[in-house]
Amino acid sequence: MQLDSKVVLITGAKGGLGNTVTRAFLDAGARVAGVSRSIADTDFPHANFHAIPASLEGAQAARNVVQIVAGKWGRVDALVHLVGGFAAGTTVDATPDEVLEQMLTVNLRSAFHIVSAVVPQMRAQGSGTILAIGSRTAVEPAATLGAYSASKAALVSLIRTVALENKNLSANVILPGTMDTPANRAAMPGADPAKWVEPAQVAALLVHLASSAASNVTGAVIPVYGSEL
Hints:
The chain has helices at residues 18-27, 59-73, 97-125, 146-165, 182-187, 199-210; strands at 7-11, 31-36, 49-53, 78-81, 129-133, 170-176, 221-224. Helix 1 packs across helix 6. By secondary structure, it is an alpha/beta fold.
């Protein structure tokens, strides 16, 4: 199996994309620690799954999560950061401060905290992979998405910086277009989901990037746009 016995920490493990990604890593043979605000072992009934209910909005909370995983399995081979949020509908000058703070907290600060917590563990091991989910709008901004796009652009910069600072690790970010999730179907009933990105393909790419077959891939910003290219 691609990830036989590797220890993978998945943040945002429960949700539209998280469910698919978590199952893909378990199917690939990984031992998975899944983090979400509300998650239990019974959400993914598998011998290699361990649930960690937690928020990543604080640095200490992120360090606690990494300590739990390292304490259980002795290492963290890959971090797959899926936590994210979306807000849109206002121009930059009309965006309330609380919306900007929400986007920065969910899309940037959570990543900054968990990456900062896991890098020392990976350095001590001498290896590790960091993967994050960004957004197409991080590099192709759209009107009325200012706070969201800016937070995702900052995430891209963060992951590329980590790659530069840690040459014995790999760090990459995937930029999907609109994904075919239940939430997106409900929010956009008039759209054509056949043009959207399939979560299973994003999950398969993440599994590949976490495997030894992709050990030379680092600092990459990978677009996955589907037929909406």
